[in-house]
Each structure stands twice: as C-alpha cells, then as structure tokens.
Protein 1
Amino acid sequence: MQGLTARRVLSGRNSLIAQRWFSQVAQKEDPLQENDLSLPKMPPFDYSPPPYNGPSAGEILAKRKAYLNPALLHFYNKAVNVVDGKRQYLFDEEGRRYLDASGGIATVCCGHCHPDVVEAIVNQTKRLQHSTVLYLNSAITDFAEALASKLPGDLKVVFFTNSGTEANELAMLIARLYTGCQDIISLRNGYHGNAAGTMGATGQSIWKFNVVQSGVHHALNPDPYRGVFGSDGEKYAKDLQDLIDFGTSGNVAAFLSESIQGVGGIIELAPGYLPAVYSSIKKAGGLCIADEVQAGFGRTGSHFWGFETQGVVPDIVTMAKGIGNGIPLGAVVTTPEIAEVLTRSCYFNTFGGNPVCTAAGLAVLRVIEKENLQENALVVGSYLKDRLTSLKDKYEIIGDVRGRGLMLGVELVTDRQQKTPAKAETLHLMDQMKELGVLIGKGGFYGNVFRITPPLCFTKEDADFLVDAMDHAMSKL
C-alpha cells in the first residue's frame, strides 16, 4: 500500500510536497518492524537517501522482459528495485533500508559508494577516462605495483582484465603456452566463468551449455560436508593423482581451483588438500592457478588471499570482484618467467588497465588497509559464524555452517542424515528475510545454501540482526 501511495504522489515528480513526503518515508525504519515489537530491529544508520523519482520496479521488469537477456533472473517473489547504497546498506525505490549480506556476490568489499573510492573514480574520470595502454599512464602502473606488493614470492607481473571470467581464460591460456600441454584439472562443483575455456573448467552442469568443452578433467571435490572422504584432504588428492596417471599423458598444463568455492556453496577445501595436489601437479610439469575472484582481498579475515589458508604459493593468481568494489576489473598475476610466454605473439586487451578502473582498484587497496577491513572480516566473521552455529543447534533445517571471515555458508536440508537439499525452504526463507530487511545470497549445486558475503565493513550489530532475522524466519516454518 505504501509503495502504491509513493508512486501516486511521485507522479508529479517535480512536486516539492512529493519530495518532502518521500524524504520522510526514506528516514523511517521498515513499517513491518514499527508494527511488531517482537521483530528483529535493524541497527541505526545515519543516512537517508535522496528522493527517488525514477521508474518503478514494475516498469523496469517490463523493460527487462522486452529488451534484455531472457535468461536474466531475479531474487524474490517481488523483485527489489535497488536505487541507492551506502556502506553495508541498500535502499529501494520506497526508501526502505536493507542490510546487504550478499555484497553484490562478494564484490562490494569496502562498502557501497565508499567516499574514497568514489573520489578516485570521479577525479580520474574528469582527467582522463580512457586512452590505451599503448600510451603511458601512471594509474595502471601504480596499481600494479601496489597489487604485486600484496602477493608472496615472485608473483609480481600483472595483466589487467575486465572480469573474473577473462582472468581465468587468460590464466589457462598462459599455462598451456608455458607448459606446452593442453590438459587442465579443476574440481567438481567449482565455478570459473562462462566463456568457452572457463565453462569447460567449471564443474557444475547448471552453468554449462551443450558446446564443445575439451581438455579439462574434473577431480573429486574435497568437500568436508558432502564429499566421499569427508575432511581427509590427502585421499581427495590421491584421486587427482589418479586423474594424472590414467586420464592424461602424465603431463598437464595446470590445476585450477578456488580456495573456497563460492558459487558452489561456500565450501572450504579439505585440510591438507592443496599442498598435496600442488606437489602432484608440479611433478607432472603443470602450473598451479589460484582462483581468488571471491575469496581474495581479505575476505577470509585470517589471510589476504584464500590460498594462504592452506600454506601454498601458486604460480598464477586470478582475481576480480572485490578488486574494484564493483568497478568492472579483474587481474592475472604471475611470475616474470611465466609471463614471458605472451610475448610469443601479440596479446592485447582494450579495456584491461583502463585508468578509471585501476584508479578505483588502488583506492580499494588503500581503504582495505586504512580501515583494517581484513581484521574486521576476521573479528566480525568469527562472531557471525559462532552465532550461526548456535542457530544450527536450534533448527534441524540447518545441516552445515561453514566458511571463514565474511565468506560464510549455511546449508539447509530437510533431513540431516540424508542431507536432502531444502530447496523450496531456502527460497521461502530468503523471501521472509527480505521482508525483515535482510538481503542474502544463494548458491550450491542444489540452490540450498545461504551465501553470506557482505561488505567487509559489516559490524557485530549487523551480524546480530542477520542471525535474528534468520532465527525469526525459521521459527515460522
């Protein structure tokens, strides 16, 4: 009713009365919470968005249907029209505030519209929006230097791309050129992108089309919850060695994996897995590629990069998402020796290293350091995980709580013994939590895992509100 009234009032969009009315609405807490004192309360936040006078959710949906990719989906029975964002919160067309527990799918690390990142983008855009890497510009070199300083060993040569898909495609190309081999091993349940090569490396049928995907072998997923060997990383690693021995010539180009599977449902690889696998790959002449698109940039809290949680150093690291806080930006970082292979021909990316994007990336790195966001991810993430684990003791529908830092997963099942995916219940609970003011992600092969990947400025009060909202929603099942 309130949304309908808002649209009627705003039909005269230049009306000062309409703007004042809407500004008042925007400052209110969710009306559902005002009417029921038993509902969880969102933490206070000193920001009100300006009045919105754009098209309604219904109008946007109609245009999406008419003009955009028909495969596009949206969360919730009633789609949310997000028009404003600040730090860890989002606002819809009616001025209602939501806690963003998804972070644009592990992308918004500094918080929505962080002033330092916005300033860097605006200032660079005013000065030079784009030229070409055929000319010199300090934005790309300054960011490359800063990024290389965050990586171990000899990982110091940076190739910029526009996305994680592009970064993984380039990493696979480099590995094949460097080794002279074609075979790449990745993991079942992994996700690496939706281009030709990365679709082949992805280990979930729901993200694949029926096109030629060759040269990739998928090893058993070292999943401590659903995997056949539980948490025994070395047994899973033995399967990968068998793949090398029986599925290849004995030599491979690379092993590509996430350190924590994001799209696959926030799955940490079984302890000891990566050291054993990296050893096998090295003996087979291959390179080790760490996909840090979702787990990188301090999100795990304990480390800046996810691969560091298993004590390994890869040959190539790919990254995107959090690298630009929402700006289209990705990167591949490798050693000088390996990077040299791209000089055999002409490799070029028109927008890779764009000055606006790289200026944003440098600002993101500085904010992460200045505001101690990695430490915050550790402290708040650990607190949140403890609270979610306590919730598991209360509700049988929670089969597993996992992850680290602010990259957490809650898997829902209808039967804990059988681990039967609670797909319908997950969708229902997402809708209920949205009504309470929490936007949360969803993933896993069965679509039954809450993916909690908020901005790294998340607070303990936000964590409490998220868990209280989940608790309330589950109590109504």
Protein 2
Amino acid sequence: MMWHCASNVYFELSQQWSDLHKPEIKLESLKEDIKDFLKTSGWEKKLQNAVYSELNMFPSPCHPAAPPEHMKEPLAYMRKAQGSWEKRILKSLNSMCTELSIPLAQKRPVNEQKELLNKWNEMGTDEPDLSLFRPVYAPKDFLEVLMNLRNPNYENGEQPSFRNHLGLIQVPLKVKDIPELKEDFSELGLNIGQLGIDDSAQVPPEFFENEHVRVGQKVLAEQDSAAAQQYVRQGCPTALRADLWALILNISNQPEDILYYEQLKSNVIQHDLLVDSLIYKDVKLTASNDDYYFVFEDYLYQVLLCFSRDTSVLEHFTYSSATPPKSYIQGKLGMEEYAVFYPPNGVIPFHGFSMYVAPLCFLYHEPSKLYQIFREMYVRFFFRLHSISSHPSGIVSLCLLFETLLQTHLPQLFYHLREIGAQPLRISFKWMVRAFSGYLATDQLLLLWDRILGYNSLEILAVLAAAVFAFRAVNLMEVTSLAAAEAVLADLSTLKVMPLLQIFLFATVT
C-alpha cells in the first residue's frame, strides 16, 4: 500500500534515528555517518524495497499539463463507460437495499457483537438465510458492457489495423503480438529452466530445481525485492513461495500491521454492512463448493469482511480508472458533506470475488499476513480485472489480446467458433476475470501467479487463455454449438500451465 507502506517505513526509521544522536557523531561527517548507519542497520535495503514497491504500482508520469483524470484513464470514452457501469452497480445495490428493507450499514446490537467475536474463527458453521440476496453482478454481465464499448471518434473500420478484428471487443487498443510477447516473457523460453516443466531437455529437472532452490534462499537472505521479482519469473519453489511473494510485495507483518488488522476486525464486530451478506453469499456459491478451497471458508470471511472496512484501499483509486461509490446519510441525499464512501474500501464485491483470496490461503496461515498479501495483490493487480480502462493489464486489453492472438494464430478455429455462435471470449472471459482461480489446480495456479508477480503484468492471463484454446483446438474444431465448446473446456484442472505457455509462445510459427 502506497502511503500506508511509506508511513510504516517512516515510523520504523524514526525509531532507529535516535542512534544518530550520539556525541561521537560529528556534523562534518554526518553524510557519511548516515550512509554507514543505513548500510549497517539494514535500512538501505528496506528503503530500496519501499521505493521499488512504489515504482511497481504507480503509473508513468503524465505530461505536466495533463488534467488529473488522465492519470486514472487517458481515454475519455473509457472514463465515461466506467462511470456509467459504476452507476449501474450502485443502482443494483440500492434496489436490493430497498427491496429487502435492509440498511447499507448499521451498528450491531451488543449481544450480536459478542456472538460474532466468539465464532470469529468458525464463521463457516453459520448458516444465515441468504436466499434473498443475489450477487450485484456476475462476470457475464460485465462482458456484455465491454462488448458494447465503442470509440466515438471514428466509425468502426476506419482504422485499417482494426478493420479485420472479428472478436467481441470493438475498441482499437494497441496490444502485443507474439514476437513482442516472446521478448517480454523471454525467461519462459524453451531453453531456460522452469519450475512447472517436468521434462526440460536442456537441464535435468532435479538438477535445475536444486540449484533454483539454492538461488532462492540466497535471494531471501539478501532481502531484495527487485531480485526476488526477477527470480520468480522462473517459478517459485513451494517452500520459499510465501516468503518470496511477501518480499516482492514488501510485506513484513510488523506489530503495527497486526494492530491495524485488529482494528479492522473490531470494525467488523461493531458494524453490520449489507456487503457482508454479499460476501457470505459469494463464499457459499464459490469457494465453499470448491474441492481445493472449501477448507478455508473461515479465512475467506475474515479477510473479506476486514477488507471491506479498510479505507487505505481507497488510495488505489488515484491510479485506477474506477471511482469509489458514495452513499448519503439518511435524509441527506445529494448533500456532499453528508456523503460517505460505501463500502468504506470503495469496492463492491461481485460473483467470484472471494476467489482472489482463496489461493493465498495455501501460503499464509496467519490472518493479518494473509490479509496484507491479499490487499497488496488487489491494489496492484486484481482491481484491473473488473474495471474499464485502456491499461495494458486491464480487462479490456486482456480480452483484445486474447482475441487477437487467437484470430492471428488459429484463424480456422477462431472462424469456426465464431460461425457456430461460440465466440471464444464468451468462454475465456470468466477465467481471466478471476485470474484463473477456481479453474486450474492450485499448484498450477500458483505457478501462474508467480509469473504475474515476476513480470508485474496480467497479460500472461490472456496468453494462457489463448494457449488453452490452442491445446484443445482439435476437439473444438468438431463442436457445433456454444454449449458443446463450453463442455470441451469445462475442466481445466488437469492442465499444466508452463508447457502450455511455452509451446504457445515459443513453438508457434510467427
């Protein structure tokens, strides 16, 4: 978290600073003394990691004359589309509120507070009646909105490079072709050792693995975020993954972080929000029915309920195309001074949202650390999967990249599916929105997320989606309906992610 992280660093550093008030420190050598102090105390690394973390998250500087909304999203029609999508979500939430006669927020009665506190670690056993609640939206509703996006500055077909795009996404954004992707993902090359590849011809897997673990331990000992990010591009050894991801995300779980989490927890205990029921419902509909994740039901409630109260999440809206929704105190509708962000973190959960947290439960068993890792993953990556923007890692670009890769490299398959009314994006969209969580086996999903962190990009999701279609192309060429195509791709749990990516990127004829 941007300011949260910076203030933590500042707080810790000020504690240490008293060491420099010793009489033997002379003014004339102060600069060198400070440098020595930073080196010997380990603060040089901490400051480097904090700066690196900020550079990874913030967008490149805009032109000095550019208006502030350009930092959020440079294209006016994207901003407008995101704005009307937000209004639609809020309308859906408010109408549910009215229909069920439930307030958006209310203080819990004292006996209810006690009860919730007592069962905090076993909320999964609770069976509230959620039959009247429905998800505010599902990925397929969002896809319909993206399909209707248009750039009003020209008629479709005026721009030659875009004239031949036959997919569902009809906006002209620049996406990478295979040669550019090969260059960007060069560490995935066929002649480079990878975790997740069982039969690399160049290096015996066990030899590569032993050496890779040794290097990983060294990277952890150095505590260098940039080195860790480079390292995980070839995959994380299972035993080191939790620590390496925390290092890349600059999460150290200090006492003040644990205290912050406890404060969020007490906010959950004291106040009941309408979104709590949406979170419950989502966990019950998704993770609770998943063979891998049902055991983490309690963790998911804890993390997501705390997340909804965390106002530090609002900071990411400075570089997200989205704007946090506002609600008005009863009877003060339209009066800005009575407006509050709702929910407090500005994020309304949708169907499948809890699956962003579920895989992290395999790595982190300490609630406050699990919470921080998820929050950081969300503000760096996941928010881009459910907001409308022109960012290369945004969902619109990912959809366009997926369709372009398929149309360019598997034209016969693309045209066949299009002709039978089974546009490929209708099938792959749900995979990409969830970053494949709940679709791949967990060990394969974690190998994929290694690369998201390593390359600081979500583009690999679109590449994998195209690679899945390439892998199942023979079967897909025989289907005659969308339902049949969906059946061929219904189960991805046996797929091996790394060989699929390598073959698609490096064995595709370009």
Protein 3
Amino acid sequence: MELFSLLLSLILFISFILFFFSIAFKTKPTNEKLKLPPGSTGWPIIGETFEYISMARKNCIEKFISERQKKYQSKIFKTSYVGQTMVFMCTPEGNKFLFSNDNKLVKPWYPKTFDKIFGQSDNKLSESPEEITSIRKTVATFFSQPEALRKNLGIIEAIAKEHLQKFWDGKQEVVAHPLLKNFTFTLSCRLMLNVQDSGTIEELEKLFSCIMSGMISLPVNFPGTKFNQAVRASKEIRKKFEVMIRRRKMEIMENVSGSEDSSKDFLTLLIVQKLKDNEEVIESEVAVLILGNIVAAYDNSSTTLASILKYLAELPEFYEEVYREQMEVANSKGTEESLSLEDVKKMIYSWNVASEALRLQPTIASPFREAITDFNFDGYLIPKGWKLHRAVHATHKNSEYFPEPDKFDPSRFEGNKIIPYSYVPFGGGTHVCPGREYARLQILVFMHHLVKRFRWEKVFPDEQMIRDPILVPAKRLPIRLYPRQS
C-alpha cells in the first residue's frame, strides 16, 4: 500500500513537471510575444490629460510628445488621455498605417462628450464603412468635383468681396479672428444650406460659438458651464436644421418635373441622393451630419486664415511675395472680371505660405481611432479597444522631417521635398479630406482680395496662437489696416 502511494505520488510529480515544461516552452501566439508600447498611464482616471492640456495651452504639444519619445526611446508611446488608454502615433509610417487601415484594424472614435454635444447618443448615425464611404462621396461631389468647384468659386468670391467691403473697407483697425470666422460661417451657411439671410446667419453663428467653446471643455453638465451651454446650443441648432431639412425634403418631393437643382447647396444634393437610393431621409440624422460638416469647415479655415495674417504681418518679405503674385493674377484680368479656377492654380506661392502656416499651426491635433482587433504595429501589440492618436505635431514639428522646424519657410513646399505622410493637415492617402479643395479656394480667394486692398500690422506684436482648448489667436488678432492705393 505504501509502495502504491509512493508510485502514485511519483507519477503525479513527473506529470506536473512535464506539464510545467510543456507550458513554459510552448510556442505562444504571435501577439503574446509582442510587448505593449512603452509609456505611463499617469494618475488614476485623469492619466496625463492635464500635462497634455498644459502643453496645448502654450501651443507646444510637440514638447509633450518629444519628451516621452526621448524618455521611452520609442517613436510611439502609450499614455492615458481623456480617460482612455491611448497610443500616440508619431511617425509618417504611423500616419500611413492609420490611413490605410481605417475600418479594417481601426475605426473613428470620439470622446463621449462629442456624442452628447452632437446628439449622436440619441440619433446614432451608421458607422458602417458603406455609410462613411457614401457620405464622403457626397461631400466630394459637392466640394471637389471641377464643375462644383467652378460654381462654388463664384459664390466664395462674391461673399469674400461683400464681407471685406462691409467689415474691413474704411476701417483703421479690425479684430481679425472674429471677422474671419464670420466670413467662413457665412460661406458655410450659403453652400451647405442655402441660407443667405444675415439675421439668421448671425443667430446660427452665436449658437456655433457656444458649441466650439464647449466641445473640448470639461464634461460638467451643470447650468452655466461651457459644456452645458454647448449641449443646449447643439440641441437648438439641430432643431432649426430639422425644420430646414423637412421643408427642403417636401420641396424636392413636390417638384414633380424633376428640375430641382441638386447642386445649389449640399443639403439639397444630400436629400436628392438619398431619395434616388431609396433611403429614408431622417431629419435628426441629417441635422447631425450637416452640423458636423459646418463645424469642420467653419473653424478650421478661419483659424488658418488667422495664422496666415499673423505670419504675413510678422514677416513682411513673405507678404510682398504674396502681394506680387496676387497682383500678377489681378493684372491679367479685366477690372470687374471674376477669378477662375485657372487663376487660382497660379497662386502657387500663396498656397505654399498657407501650407507652411498649416504645418506650424495645425488647426486640430488630429482625430482619434479605436483598435477593432488586436494588431501589431512596429513590433508592439495594440490591444483591441485601445485608442490611437495620429499626433500631427510629432511630424510637423520634427527636424527629422522639416529642418529648422520652428522657422517659417514656404520654400519647403516647392518641388517634391516633403516626405510622404509627414505633412498631414488634410489627412492622406485614400482618406484625404474630401473638402480640401474647398478649403483651398476659401483661403486663396480671401488672400487675393485682402492683399489687393491692404497691408497690415499686429496691434500686439508679441501675440501668439494658443489652444484654449482649440487653436485661436491669444487676443483675437487685432490688426491695423493700411489701404493700398488703387
């Protein structure tokens, strides 16, 4: 009996040893061999959010990034930001990877505050690749196709001239940034919704200002907070949009002759396209879509124009080159002759100036993505559910890709000097922003008519761009105007 017990114990012991070694030396799945990206998640819940915001307010997000790259000796790192474990992608290769794998390995992700403000918790738009592709195609049709660009160019120029005549001509001094926002918002209302009444535009712009102020604020939904004001403003503006959408849908459906001009504004094109595809036009969903497109067009272009005005005031040698180029275009035309797409194509130097302003002052810190599955990037495991951030400052302000990165130098964009995917203010690859050409027209047409009329200087010579929380001039960019002699 004792011998049997001894043999049994020996067998169990040997079995345990064999099992242990089989586990220890077993070939593990590929992902288990990979290590997680280096980094720290900082304090519980808040992570490193406050450190990031602190750097953002000083408009030096690149320092937040470079300090961690240096500390961890890695081109990507993990942190905890806005309550999420997040991987910062800091290279052109990382940018390309995210562009190439949208809706394959990653999908768009926004903080919950965005859902609350934009109403998507109640009116969730489809996030299927097919829906996203369809929306991008509609946006591209209206804002990027040559025929649409020609039509939009005429509207952009008319509104730019009217705006300058109303708010700039005859003034010795203006506060530029609010006026630039008014210009781009007026344009968005006209092209998106065919709204032309100045009173309605003014009312809508006030609501949009509340939305933009609260969009990246602390998510404290108490009366009086920026977040609460943004939520309330968004609800109000979506109700107004729903009324417009319902009215427009009825007009289109009653137009039995089929002669409705679907190119007159983006809303009409969107509704006509949905009806052709036998899709239901749900007013609340279309309102969210229109809201998102106007937010994107409204703030980005106006802030880019503010950056351009800032640099041209500080660096008169670049202003003179822009003026020379724009006068060559102007002198090639009749006195009252409108700009053409061919004229805009000649504004090469002016667009290089705008591109350099966008490199130094990207309007947004870039969108977020969420891993839909575990995957390997650059030897690191990115687990499903982790968030990823395409850190545009990491390449725009990196001397490896842009020598003397803090220097304003439009010549960087001459020829083919730019390393692919290092300059990504409009995205890249198949995911380049479908409104890129529209933004280009807005910026160049406004620059053309502004430099023809004025040179200018900053009232506060040391005024800089800051992020509070979005990119803005610290003091709203007041400038003194010096009219050009006709």
Protein 4
Amino acid sequence: MTAETNTGPMIGQRHLQAFLLFLSIVVNYMAKFNAGVAVVAMTNAENTNPDFPEYDWNEMERSYILSSFFWGYIMTQFLGGWLCRRFGARITMFVSTIGSALLALLPPWCVSWGGWQAYCVIRMSMGLFQGFLFPCIHAHLANWCPVNERNRLGALANTGIDCGTLVAMFASGLLAASSVGWPGIFYVSCGVGVFWCIIWLIFGANTPRESKFISEAELNYIETSINSSRKAEEAEQQDSGPIPVPWKAIWTSAPFWALMIVRCGQSWGYSTLQTEMPAYMNGVLLMDMKSNALYSALPYFTSWMMAFVYLIVADILLTRGVMSITGIRKTVNSIAFFVPAFALIGVSFLDSNQKTLAVVLMCANVGINAGNTIGSTINTIDLSPNHAGILMGIINTAANVVPILTPLLVGIIVKDDHDREQWQIVFIISAVIFFVSNIIYLAFGQMVNQPWNAPDFMDKQRSLNLQEDGNAKALEAKRKESVAGLQSDEPKKMDITEENLSKNES
C-alpha cells in the first residue's frame, strides 16, 4: 500500500502570496514607468489637457528624468537583500512600497518651482525605496513556493512586470488627456500604492508558519516540499545564526555571471522600449496622446497574455517530463531574446505611413520577450534558494545600471525626435545586446542548486582549507627532513670518498 502524497489545497495561501507579489510589482511599476508618458504630456500640452502647465524641457533633460529613477534604484539592491534577511519580506516590502507611493504624489507640487531637477530628485528617491522590492520578492517566493510549483508561482508573480508596465502606459495616457490632466497620473499612482500596503499588512507573511490564515495541510505540504530537513536546518541556524553568504564562491561562479549578463541584456532592450516608446510613437509615428497611450500599452498587454501562454506550456512540458527545467529555461529564453532582436531592427525601418505594421512588430517584440520571466528571471531560485534574495540584489543592481544608460544614450544619439535614422541606431544596438547576452546564457547558464547553496558550505570550505594547509605543512616537514638527511649523509660520503682515494694511491 503506497503512502498518500500530500499535495496541499488546490488554491491556498501560497497562491494568495504570489498574487500579492504580483500586485506589488504592478503598483510599483505604475509609479516607476509613468514618467515615460508623463514627460511627453508635461512638455506637449497640445496632445493632452492644455489646462495644465507645460514645460520647455529638451531631449537631454527628459533623458535625465527618465534615467534618474535608477540612480537611486541601484544603490539599495544589496541593502534590500540584507533588510529582507534581517527583518523579513513583510515589513521591508511595506516600507519600499509606501515610500515610493508617497513620493509619487510630489511632482505636481514640486516641479512648478523646482523644474526638471526637482523631478529628478523625486524619482531618484523613489528608486531608493523600490530598490528593496525585488530581492524581497525572490526571497519570499523561495520561502513560499513548493519545489514543483516554483516555476508556476514565480512566473505568475513576475507577470506583474508586464501588467504594471501596461497599466502605467495605458492609464497614464488616458489620465493625461482627461480632465485631471497629467497631475492625475501621480495621484492615481500614489493611491493604488497605499491601498496595496493596507492589503499586504493584513495578508502578507514572511513564511507559511507565520501566516494566520494557512491550513495545517498546506503548511505541511509547503514545508515538506521545500526541504524535508528544514527543521534540522532551522535548529542549526538557531545555534549558529543565519547561513553565511559565500561571497567568493558566488563571484567566481560561471552560472551566476551568465545569469547576470543575460539579465543586463534583457534590461537594456526592455528599458529602451519602456522609457522611449511614447517619445518614438509621438516623434516618428506621429501619434497623438490618446493613440499613443493605447498603442504604447498594447505591446505590454500582449506581453502579459503571452506570459500566461509561456507559463502554461512550460508547466505542461515540465510536469509531463517532456523537457527538463534546464531545457525549458534555455529554450524559452532563446525565443524571448532572438525574436525581439530581429523585430527591433524591423521596427526601426518603419515610418508614420506604416503605423499598423510598427505596432504589430512592437507587440510581437514585447509579447515574445515575456518568456524571459520563465527563461531567466527566476533562475536565482534555481541556483540558490538559500541566497535567492542576495543573488537578486546583486543581479538587479547590475541590471539596473543599464536603464541609467539607455535614456542618456538616446539623448546623445536622438537629437531630433522625428529623425527615424537616429532611432535606428538605438534599436540596432539593443538588438545586438539581446543576441549576444543570450548566447552567453546558453553556454554557461545552469538551472540546478550550486554547491555554495548548502548551509554548511562555508564550514566545509574551512575544513578543506585546514586539511590542505595541514597536508602542505606535512609535505614541507618531510621535505625539510629529507634535506636534513641528505646534509647529514654528505660528511660520511666525503669520508668514504677520501678513504677510497687513499687506498687507490697506495
């Protein structure tokens, strides 16, 4: 008689946690990427509501605004991972989101007297708060996702990236053209952020055991699935403290570097579209703000839908044993990078007479790229569940240096928004980076727990180093004994040699 396998409830608290993570990404991305539409509305009142102030900012000043968020964002990735380990995801994510939401309320009040410089300071401060977010999300997923549901729940949570960008583009454009004007963009971003914080304080929990609403069956299922020896590890951690971070092993790991490079490549191509698409559509395709809002958002709607397609297909392939997790991740990531690389080049050769084709290619570009979530975003948990938050902090820091550079590069290359040839250079650079970064991921990426994930890895390394030191000392001692023995034998050999010579002479 076989033992009954505990699969937990079909819908439970683990799904609610994934949904709350999804919503956290949505509300933070609304505040993060509404600037792409906002700066167009704030500098071109003709296409929005003319009852609100218009600012005469040039392309370089607008590029500074779009880039400034990431000045702060890269500074708190490591801090976010540390805070999550120290205080847990619940309080850290609350602080991250409430800080960003309240700052999102300030531009309508501060830009009138501080200009684009004040807007830059506000966005940089928002970046400082939002830098805590993704290290917490990945650590939270590692605590809540059963092993066989990790791919599914992790991908579901990360579809908030596409949904948040979609809402930021679409809602911001409609609000800017409505009676509330461009200030309404910031009021709504603040409101939804505060609302999420209230829900999170009620239902969020750092671990399944801390949840007030989880059933005993689901608790046992999650804890058993994540690690059958978790209780022993927890007892060990209570005695020795948190698992030490194997910094040297991480920084010398080829799979870790492959993941960092591919995430930087993804960040380059995606951030180019996120921040510059409204300006490109307005300048080259000559779309007004309402059309701009709709068509800027449409690619991200496609991406959001495609994320579920990728998720369902990958789940079927994995559960039926058709492909391994390594095969799935590398195949999906290749589709998500190679196809958009060619689509980006195609878009750059279209003009205002080919708007429909341009929008179709943009939809294909962003939609197919949605596979990067399954392909590489959650690879941190594959490499090391114990250090997922730290890994995400490092990788997110590197990946978010890129969005600082892309708007500035556009500001240098694109001197005239209406010049299609200048935009071609921008899109071709992104296409090449997409292609090369995925080649590196295919060659060196891995989807298995690395040796340095083990809780006792540092202890084993110390023991190994001590053993090697002991062996080295023993060998050195033997060498010295041999040298000393040879030296002591030399007088005897000299005596024998002299005796033989004297006999021969006689």
